[in-house]
Structures are given as C-alpha cells and as structure tokens.
Design a protein that fits this description.
single chain, 557 residues, Glutaredoxin, 4-stranded mixed sheet, globular
Length: 557
Amino acid sequence: MAATLTKQAPAPSKAPMTKEEQKVIFASSLGTVFEWYDFYLYGSLASIIAAQFFSGLDPTSAFIFALLAFAAGFIVRPFGALVFGRLGDMIGRKYTFLLTILLMGLSTFIVGVLPSYASIGVAAPVVLIVLRLLQGLALGGEYGGAATYVAEHAPHGRRGAFTSWIQTTATLGLFLSLMVILGTRTLVGEDAFKEWGWRIPFVLSILLLAVSVWIRMSMNESPAFQKMKAEGKTSKAPLAESFGQWKNLKIVILALVGLVAGQAVVWYTGQFYALFFLQQTLKVDMGTANVLVALGLLLGTPFFVVFGTLSDKIGRKPIILAGCLIAALTYMPLFKALTQAANPDLARAQASAPVSVVADPAECSFQFNPTGTAKFTSSCDVAKQVLAANSVNYETVDGSGAAVIKVGDKTIPSYDAKAFSGDALKAKDAEFKKAVSTAIKEAGYPAKADPAKLNKPMIVAILTLLVIYVTMVYGPIAAMLVEMFPTRIRYTSMSLPYHIGNGWFGGLLPTISFAIVAQTGNIYNGLWYPIIIALATVAIGTLFVRETKDNDIFAND
C-alpha cells in the first residue's frame, strides 16, 4: 500500500514562507482560478449558449450535441486526468500544467468569438463541442498538476497550508464568473446580454490567460520531480504502474470511495445544489440568488486555508471525514431552514396544503435526465414533472388509468403526451400547466419568492455554513491525495480518483437529486443522494484509509 509504505518525513518546518514558495502558490492558484472561471462560464450561460448554437438543429442532432456537451463537462475529465497525468509523471509537472492552461484558455476565448448557428450553420455547434471537449480534458489535467506542484514545493509539516490555497480556486473561480456575468448583464442590459453581451466574459479570459502563462513560464520544476529525474527513476509507463499493479490500484480505489466521493457531493451540495435550490425550488430570482451565494462564498472561502493548516497539525483524515459526517447529519434541517428564510409562503403551503398524484405505478419513471433532452411522456411523469417544477410536495397514491393531481378538493386530470403532437400537444400542455398553476396558487403555493419576505442575513448565514462544510472536506484533500502516492506516478494516480469523484459523483448530483425529488414528491429528498454518499465515505474512510500527513513525499516507492 503506497500510503503506508511511504517513509516517515523529517520534522515539520517552522521557517517563514520564502518568496519562491509564495510565487509557486500564487502562480498555481491564479492559473487554477482561471481554469475554473472558464469552466463555470459555460455552465452559468448554458441556456444562452444553447439558443445561440443549437437552436436551428433538428431534435435528433440537438440531442446528440447535448450529450456531447454534457460529456465534455463531466465524463471527459477523468480522461484528461489520464492523458495529462501520464505526461506530468513522464516529462514534468511544470510543462504539463502549462499546456493545460493554454488549452483551456484558448478554447474559452474562441467560444467568445465563435460565430453562432445563424451565421455558419451546423459548423457552429460542431466547433463548440470540440472546444468543450478540449476544456474538459484540460481541466482533468490541471488540478492534479497544480496540487502536485505546490505540494512538492512545500516544506514538510506545511503541505496542508500550502495546498489549501489551490483548494480556494474552485470557489474563487465560481465567484469571479458570477461577478463578471452579473457586472456584464448590468452594464449592457438583459436583451443585449442575451444577443451579444454573453461573449464578453469569455473574451476577457484572454487577459487572465496571458498573466497566468507569463507567471508559469518563469517557474521552476518541482524539487521532487527534479530529484527523481536526476536519479533516473521517472516512470516509463505511469498508467500501467498506477492502475495495473494492485498495490497502487487499491489505494486509487480507496482514495475515490473513502475520501473523494464524499468530498465531491459535499462540495457540489454546498456550492452548486444550494444555488440550484434557491433558484429552481425556492423561486428566488437569479440575480438575488447569485449575490447571496457569492456572499456565502466570500465569507466561507478563508476557511479553506484554516482547515488546510489545521490538517498539518491534527491530520487530513479526521477533518475530511468530520466534514462529510456533519454535512450528512445537518443537510435536512439546514435546507428546510433555507426554505423558511427564502420563501416562507412556500414553507407554509407545504405544511397546510397536501397534494397527491393518483397514478398507475407502471406509468411512473425515474426521471434521470442529465442532458435535459429526454422526454417523459406518460400521464404520471407529466404530472410529477409539473409539480416538481413548481416546488410542490406531494404523495403518490396507487391508482389505475390516467394520472390525476389532487389539490385539496380539486382534481386535475393529467394526459399522455404521446396521444398529441405539434400544436395540439403545446395547447394541451399549456392548458394542463395553467390548471395546475391555478389550483396550487389557490392552495397558497407562490409562483415566486416574495423579495420583501427574504430573510437575507439568515440565508447568507446558512449558505456560509454550507461553504464551511465544503472547506472542511476540500481544504485538506489535495495534500492527502499527493501524500498517498509515490513521486514517480503521483500526478497520474491522484488525478483519476479526484476527477471521477468530482466529475461523476459530484457532477451528476443536481440531475440525480432532481430525479429523486420528482420520483418521491418531496423537495428535500434530493438531499438523500449526497447524504448517503457522504456517510458511505465516512464508513469506508474510517475503516480503510490511513492518515498521511507524516509521509515523506520525496520517497519514490
């Protein structure tokens, strides 16, 4: 086991941080902030980009492109980890993650100047998807390089503190993207933003790219890799060594299920699902929700360094697993408190106006729809989709025939979407949604959150606490992953579990959670996904993962 065979390191260093160490941290962090900024821009502006590039496609082509865009965002990241991890272990950390930032930055800039479907036809979505795939690959290689590079520069006893700065980058990248989008929207106006202003945040990224590349070009290779290269011990087949030998593959698997999977769902819940929940479930307007989340991020981000530094003293494992456990135990009451603070009218309606769907169980699907293009057409699915979209809690009652929605003493029959097409389907859908909307409105369910009733201090307090959970699990994770693997295959070995955990376990969280909500009829049941994954990580990590803070990362066996 690599993590346990690693030699014990010398006593912790207490010397102040040198200028070179400060430069390493700044350069690595700045570049990674930029990478996350680029990556988040696409997610934040997905609906506008879809209208610009996919609007003229037929349904089949649009479905294929939606799948590819989704794959680029999440599925491709582990492959980037394999490609660039291998390069990083063979040719060095510095040049590999210089390549990843160039790839990400240029791809993002080109998105900003890429002609739309209306200008160049189907070539527009084709080029866009290629750029998205390149971004996904680059992001898969960036994190492992940055974390490894900083950790291998850090003195023993301070790796948690040094690498925790890298951990702030995802949050800062999200914060920066939200602020640039919000500022651009305010400056040019909503109509102009949808038409051409959305390009500005992408084009501005070229400035960040230039600064990041200039700084990274002046950096030195990591001392651990230099030592290994001088001794002629670099790996000639890092993929085979990392995943073809059980002694190391076992550590990769434990890193994934005993650390990263739980870290990923806590991270995505605190930073992404919380925003989704505010906007889509609690019906807080987008601008207000973005500002509230940004405040929570701003207040919580310093704790990455707090917990990273603390992990140098008490260990990485107890902080990460404690964060997973506390999050799992408190998510339900916190999100219920968030509902009360952000939309008290909705909380009141959920308690006083029960709703039910009477349907044949055979007609009800699990509505897993990661690309947003799947069609759920049965009367049960149509009814549940409408109620879930309106944040209505309901129970499902077994019945026969077409599904019906019962709101108090009112009964609204659903419909089978396959029985209609074209304009007739649109008219039927509009009629059904209007009937449901009227009934739930009369029952007290609000169409949107009342701005006058927002308890903003409480909302920010809850969001900040959710971010602090993120800092507990994410602050020490880079140092721990670096310490689990020998130098010769470190970049490759740590990158794959990180990106499978965060790209797949975390990236699928909003989609899986919404499907659970639609299936069960309770807006809070989507939280069971991160709760179960986090608790599984606590159990596996407690039993099988060993502490690593005292490992000698210069050891190469």
